[in-house]
Design brief:
Elements (H helix, E strand, L loop, with lengths): L4 H4 L3 H22 L1 H9 L21 H6 L15 E4 L9 E4 L1 H17 L7 E4 L7 H13 L2 E3 L6 H10 L4 E4 L1 H13 L11 E5 L5 H11 L2 E8 L4 E7 L6 E3 L4 E6 L13 E7 L10 E7 L1 E2 L11 E2 L4 E2 L4 E3 L2 E3 L1 H10 L3 E12 L2 E10 L1 H4 L3 H19 L4 E5 L6 E2 L2 E2 L2 E3 L4
Parallel strand pairs: 3-4, 3-5, 5-6, 6-7, 18-23, 19-20
Antiparallel strand pairs: 1-2, 7-8, 8-9, 9-14, 10-11, 11-12, 12-15, 13-14, 16-17, 18-19, 21-22
Helix pairs in contact: 2-3, 5-6, 7-8, 8-9, 10-12
This protein binds 5'-O-[hydroxy(phenylacetyl)phosphoryl]adenosine.
Amino acid sequence: MYWEEERECMSREDLEQLQLERLQATLYRVGTHVPFYRNKFFEMKLDYESFGSLDDLRRLPFTTKQDLRDNYPYGLFAVPLRDVVRIHSSSGTTGMATVVGYTGNDIRTWSNLVARILTAAGVTKDDVIQIAFGYGLFTGGFGLHYGAERIGASVIPISAGNTRRQIQIMQDFKTTALVCTPSYALKMADVMMDMGINPSGLSLKYGLFGAEPWSERMRRQINERLNIIATDNYGLSEVMGPGVAGECLECNGLHVNEDHFLVEILDPKTLEPVAPGETGELVITTLTKEAFPVIRYRTRDLTRFLLEPCPCGRTMRRIQRITGRTDDMLIIKGVNVFPTQIESILFDIEGTQPHYNLVIDRVQNEDRLTVLVEVVESLFFDEMKKQRLVIEQIKKRLASELGVGVEVKLVEERSLERFNGKGNRIFDKRRL
Ligand code: DLL
């Protein structure tokens, strides 16, 4: 089943023509309305009005997360705030956060693209869809919500957390489709077991999972334990949110909504295209965004194109599930966390040393981040009460600024291993 067959199955030739026209319009939009791009084009002596082919894309400058931060909060908006009807932000504190905006049209496009992804993954207007992503600045909750409403499905906007209640509602409201992170789906399966609920007695049929990396092993577990068909969907707030790419029921790679996003896969070192089918960094140019268009946004996500046509009939190219990142961003319980954020909070707290380790593991299908931080000798040998206070202070700051709970352990000065004088700080022990 398709949501917009004429688009999703269009010929490559028509698609490329449409992409070129939309790229030209986007370049005009940013070239006239966004000083950041106007200056870049000027410096590069780039005459975007002469763009006659998609190959010219390679002449365009890149956009990075740092550019978004440097222009915090509204510097990259291509419309006045008066035309913006929604603002979202990726996790992080002021300065680290990135802010994105949507016009009314952008919201309609977004809903439509999420509707495509939901339809491809089996959801119809007859479904009862439980959205267990956080509603708020994170794009997951509202993004999926609007798409599901667009289809006409019955939406349960339960948001994240309170797993027992989620399951109770799933049972009572006869939920047929579940939307959340893949690890949360497994956590739900655990809690169902604790509650003595047999998933095959529920009405669940489909699960749409995204916002964090997962694996085929996890897919098998989810399918078996929840008795559903689990599909992967991908997106990022800087580009739109969910709705950039999603799997069809072939469950073999994610169709990119290429009529709205121009995707490249580049070697992260040379920034040149990799050979067809090779793994590299996904770089995305938006083609229809009004409020927040981005040119060649470096996602830092690693993937590759799947070259064979998909039996589902969609012509939109597929990417393999995201297999890693080219930076040190961590995704903890679906929340993006940069080690530098943790570092700057730790450095702010009296008694800590600039040496820390981050240990991430998954305990009963839930991510756990433990921060080990060296503290000055006097504090380490001080009374327990004082240490507890420091721990509490760090925990509170980290929880409020990262948006995710953290365990904290104080360790003795010089007890964390140094490699080349530099701490090897991240120990991700999760097995996906
Ligand atoms: O996670 C948007 C989203 C919400 C996608 C709900 C799908 C479902 P951000 O918070 O900006 O946006 O995080 C984006 O999360 O660059 C990837 O590293 C990672 N990510 C998102 N989807 C997947 C996925 C949302 N399916 C960052 N597989 C991206 C692996 C994913 N990683």
